[in-house]
């Protein structure tokens, strides 16, 4: 490995050159040094990954063919960094097909051999300009809209999500955000709010499963003095209090049917009637709903009103589970780790390749939230700056606790007399008990571990006759 700095001490940017031919490395070093860039050159994918792990690289120029390795591996390693550099690939003359494919994976551009020096110089300049602009935009978003810098994802599925966010942000149409627990539905709702004309107005998230029916209506629509015991003053509901801002109805699938009827009318008329009042008050807030349930199935089951479903389902934005976001796991893990490094005052924290490999292969039933918690656990418990596999939970390392291991056995279709319903009930009960024990009896935490809403978790406990002490209740014994 060699490092060369230009005459202005590399102030124009740090470039990593990856090529297994010494003559090409030396040629590119000299060419880029004359332009005032700081240059590090290496001959292999492994060496390139080592340099990228240290951060500080603004641009990678890599040959597509690297002996037994590939420039695509360098590209993926670069894209996995939380502050990923741009990547330019060099390919043999007349064979650009693979490089074009690499651009679909996120490469900035490619250049064919033999290349013109001026062509390469302009390409490097434009690539670095793009990265500078990307960093400036990211910094501006972070300052103006704290929390949105967590909108990380370069997979095709997430790029489609963010493209739709940009399209709907400036409108007023109701948006329904769907996806499993932990996929980032509130983050997306907040992004829609922040990228539109309402960004300077309030964003008020509200959990529809957290309150009983009466309190739920009071919180959403407001109440007047004397409407119920404890209503000592008039109070505006969230829809009015938000003004021209946005109200997010989280877990809308958990809303009681009686409240669904009232919400439908409110959305149709754009007016609320506070509890205990005969007068209607207009409101201007945009409504974004979110749920981890399949509302179509809930409608068929009679648990959700069909007319409200169509009112909310003007624009649907479905978030993919983390297991379907190929390539985003390492990117997210490194992003969360970089944030933690700053908070903990440990700038040298980094994952070993083995650790990232284990994370990439894990299905993450708790999605992005589970990954974030896992990274925090690893960073907090590790005595070393290099986070190895031992910092991960046993389940990720393949050493699953028997209490929460998926049920194993013969395939149901090959077992005579197999009772699927009984098998599923028994499995569900074991998971509920294991989650409660792991959460120390805290139901909200246990619900999170299983990716369930609190109301759904509480319902399942009752269904199996489980009380707080995890023993069958009298109703179940009857």
Keywords summarizing the entry:
Rossmann fold; disordered C terminus; Helicase, Ruva Protein, domain 3; 45% helix; elongated; 4 domains; 19 strands; 478 residues; 20 helices; alpha/beta
Write the layout of secondary structure elements.
Layout: E1 2-4, E2 14-18, H1 22-34, E3 38-42, H2 45-53, E4 59-63, E5 65-66, E6 69-70, H3 71-79, E7 86-91, H4 97-104, E8 109-112, H5 117-144, H6 156-168, E9 175-178, H7 185-194, E10 203-207, H8 213-221, E11 222-223, E12 235-236, H9 238-241, E13 246-250, H10 257-269, E14 271-272, E15 281-282, E16 286-291, H11 295-300, H12 306-312, E17 315-318, H13 328-344, E18 350-351, H14 353-361, H15 367-381, E19 386-387, H16 394-397, H17 420-438, H18 443-449, H19 454-463, H20 474-477
Parallel strand pairs: 2-3, 2-4, 4-7, 7-8, 9-16, 9-17, 10-13, 13-16, 18-19
Antiparallel strand pairs: 1-3, 5-6, 11-12, 14-15
Full CATH superfamily name of the largest domain: P-loop containing nucleotide triphosphate hydrolases
Distance between the termini: 75 Å
Structural class: alpha/beta
What is the name of the CATH class of the largest domain?
Answer: Alpha Beta
- How much of the sequence lies in strands comes to 5-15%
Main sheet: strand order: 1-3-2-4-7-8
CATH architecture of the largest domain: 3-Layer(aba) Sandwich
> What is the percent of helical residues?
40-55%
GO molecular function: ATP binding; sequence-specific DNA binding
Keywords: ATP-binding, Nucleotide-binding, Phosphoprotein, Transcription, Transcription regulation
GO biological process, one term: phosphorelay signal transduction system
Pfam family, one: Sigma54_activat
